């Protein structure tokens, strides 16, 4: 009587064995594994760093831009008579009491007039010394304009109404101008020479919050400049301009009222520039930067995926005999595919973890170096290792399928 042959137990590959085999295959060549992960590390690191730095920088842009630009209104002479109503003469200057008129507008903290002194007279440390004014701006300004600039005084005092009314020959120097002209202290009442005429230095400032053109320059009272150098040309960048510092949220209303406050008879005589929308500009800049760097991060991820796919495929070719032996001993196609998919996914996950860590460290280092507040969005940081896993999984699909389709007999014969 013939005996029936019972089939053997079905081949199984447990999760623990699968992970162990994948780790063994990954750690056999640590140098190649590290190089394979490099693309994923760079891509995920760039992804996390870009989003973190963009969010961090946007916070700084918002803080500085909103507080300065959103509270600044400027106005200038109309460059010509074109476009003015009939009978309105082309403007030649602001009214002499501009500072007082601006101060009466609700929402204005400070405001006044300034202009580049025409003719670019020479600046020197001595009456007969060489011109040291190359690269330095000589500006005329009223006390209100200087207050609107909000200079950070290193020594001395800014311009006040007395020096304006009495047309005093005094000057404010930026730190760069003071260094260039050899002014190191003010207790001896030093003087600088403008076109050979002495001007007593009453103050030195290191920076200005508004009108950055005054940083490498010398500021003299507007009344003194009018008396000694004449009126500036009407209109244009070289003409008289008004600078107004407003309270937060008042810039729009101030910009609408400013022409009427200056010349009720001809408000069209001035071109008023209100602050731009800070949120729109900030969001536009942040969006452009984020799109650019995310494109670079995507390229790095693509390179990493190609590297993982290439390495996994090479591993399949190198281990053809091993695959054939496993198949002949009962391993199924899905077991072989699962092993190589697990290897590629492990490479992607490890690269994602390392890249995430490097991205976070980069954001923290940049923020600490610039004294910023680091901003890291959990929605962008936490899924980053998962992105690495997905990249590794997708990169290993073709090599895993190729390994699964390996004929065991051909594989053993080729070995």
Automatic annotation (TrEMBL):
Name a single GO cellular component.
plasma membrane
Q: Where in the cell is it found?
A: Cell membrane
Q: Which UniProt key words apply to this protein? A: Cell membrane, Membrane, Transmembrane, Transmembrane helix
This protein's source sits in the domain of life called Bacteria
Tell whether Transmembrane helix is among the UniProt keywords.
yes
Instruction: Give me the segments passing through the membrane.
Output: 34-55, 292-317, 347-368, 380-401
Q: Which InterPro entries does the annotation name?
A: ABC3_permease_C, MacB_PCD, Macrolide_Exporter_MacB
Q: Using the UniProt annotation, give all residue ranges assigned to the region (Disordered).
A: 73-98
Q: Which stretches make up the ABC3 transporter permease C-terminal domain? A: 295-408
- Give all residue intervals belonging to the MacB-like periplasmic core domain: 33-251
Which terms in the Gene Ontology molecular function aspect does this entry carry?
transmembrane transporter activity
Pfam families, alphabetized: FtsX, MacB_PCD
The protein's topology relative to the membrane is: Multi-pass membrane protein
Q: Where is the signal peptide?
A: none
Of which family is this protein a member?
Answer: Belongs to the ABC-4 integral membrane protein family.
Mind telling me what this protein is named?
ABC transporter permease
Task: Tell me the lineage of the source organism.
Answer: Bacteria, Bacillati, Actinomycetota, Actinomycetes, Kitasatosporales
């Amino acid at each position: 009587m013939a005996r029936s042959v019972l089939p053997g137990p079905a081949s199984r590959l447990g999760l623990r064995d699968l992970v162990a085999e994948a780790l063994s295959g990954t750690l056999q060549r640590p140098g190649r594994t590290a190089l394979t992960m490099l693309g994923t590390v760079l891509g995920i690191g760039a992804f996390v760093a870009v989003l973190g730095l963009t969010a961090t920088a946007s916070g700084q842009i918002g803080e500085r831009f909103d507080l300065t630009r959103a509270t600044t209104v400027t106005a200038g002479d109309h460059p010509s008579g074109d476009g003015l109503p009939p009978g309105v003469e082309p403007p030649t200057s602001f009214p002499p009491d501009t500072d007082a008129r601006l101060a009466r507008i609700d929402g204005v903290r400070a405001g006044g007039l300034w202009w580049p002194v025409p003719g670019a007279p020479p600046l020197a440390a001595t009456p007969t010394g060489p011109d040291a004014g190359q690269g330095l701006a000589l500006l005329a300004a009223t006390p209100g304009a200087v207050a609107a600039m909000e200079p950070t005084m290193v020594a001395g005092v800014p311009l006040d109404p007395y020096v304006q009314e009495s047309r005093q020959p005094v000057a404010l120097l930026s730190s760069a101008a003071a260094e260039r002209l050899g002014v190191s202290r003010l207790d001896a009442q030093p003087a600088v020479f403008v076109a050979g005429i002495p001007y007593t230095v009453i103050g030195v400032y290191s920076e200005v919050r508004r009108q950055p053109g005054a940083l490498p320059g010398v500021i003299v009272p507007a009344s003194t400049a009018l008396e000694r150098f004449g009126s500036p040309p009407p209109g244009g960048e070289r003409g008289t301009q008004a600078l107004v510092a407003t309270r937060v949220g008042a810039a729009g209303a101030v910009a609408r009222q400013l022409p009427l406050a200056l010349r009720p008879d001809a408000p069209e005589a001035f071109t008023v520039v209100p602050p731009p929308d800070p949120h729109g500009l900030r969001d536009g800049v942040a969006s452009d930067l984020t799109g650019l760097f995310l494109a670079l991060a995507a390229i790095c991820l693509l390179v990493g995926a190609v590297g993982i796919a290439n390495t996994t495929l090479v591993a399949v070719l190198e281990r053809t005999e091993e695959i054939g032996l496993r198949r002949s001993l009962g391993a199924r196609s899905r077991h072989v595919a699962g092993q190589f998919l697990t290897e590629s996914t492990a490479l992607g996950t490890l690269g994602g973890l390392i890249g995430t860590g490097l991205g976070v460290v980069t954001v923290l280092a940049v923020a600490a170096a610039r004294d910023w507040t680091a901003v890291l969005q959990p929605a962008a940081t936490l899924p980053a290792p998962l992105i690495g896993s997905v990249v590794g999984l997708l990169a290993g699909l073709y090599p895993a399928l190729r390994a699964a389709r390996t004929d065991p007999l051909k594989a053993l014969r080729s070995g």
